[in-house]
Amino acid sequence: MTVRDNLAAVRQRIEAACARVGRNPADVRIVAVTKYIDAERALHVLDAGIADLGENRAGQLLEKYERIGDRAVWHFIGTLQSRKVKDIIDKVDYIHSLDRLSLAKEIEKRAVRPVKCFVQVNVSGEATKHGLSPDETVPFIDQLRSFSHLEVVGLMTMAPHTDDEAVLRACFRQLRVLKERVQALRWPHAPCTELSMGMSNDYEIAIEEGATFVRIGSSLVGSL
């Protein structure tokens, strides 16, 4: 199937998920995860009508950026090493994996314009996942109030890899409640209006629980 065919199927499922909970599908933004495809295939993704591309590694992002440039809205969605910030900071529009003060300081130091960041929260508590605990999240965001080049637009999480819908739903719901808590504080540096959660195997549940950004890979863009 082509990217256009895949996109049509994904959008149909997004519309159905939104209909079940009374949401507007226009409020859900698709980030195409392009880590398993080359720049040529990524261009097909843009041609199909998706503007947002997500990369997990700095090197792969830079390779594709060299070919695609500002045609895409770039999302860094993987674990970001502080030493790699200088390489990508002037190219990315969103960072989905802010999870420590040292990384925030490096972003602040290197950025020439405000960078939209999601604070990564390890809701499930799995040792294999990065992110702050829910209890650490609000105090961490409070520490960022003096960082003029960093805007906390929302929270991100990765749910457990399971078919248990109740577990997935509880994970996404907990992040939404936490997001609403931060949003209610009305901090200028942290509007926290967005939720980056849901991938190919669980994005419909994530949408039902409030996701505004879903990160979809091979089921949408294919692989090499």
UniProtKB/TrEMBL annotation:
SUPFAM superfamilies: PLP-binding barrel (SSF51419). InterPro entries: Ala_racemase_N, PLP-binding_barrel, PyrdxlP_homeostasis. Keywords: Pyridoxal phosphate. Residues 6-223 form the Alanine racemase N-terminal domain. It comes from the Bacteria. The keyword Repressor does not apply. The modification N6-(pyridoxal phosphate)lysine is found at residue 35. Belongs to the pyridoxal phosphate-binding protein YggS/PROSC family. Pyridoxal 5'-phosphate (PLP)-binding protein, which is involved in PLP homeostasis. HAMAP family: PLP_homeostasis. This is Pyridoxal phosphate homeostasis protein. It comes from Geobacillus stearothermophilus (Bacillus stearothermophilus).
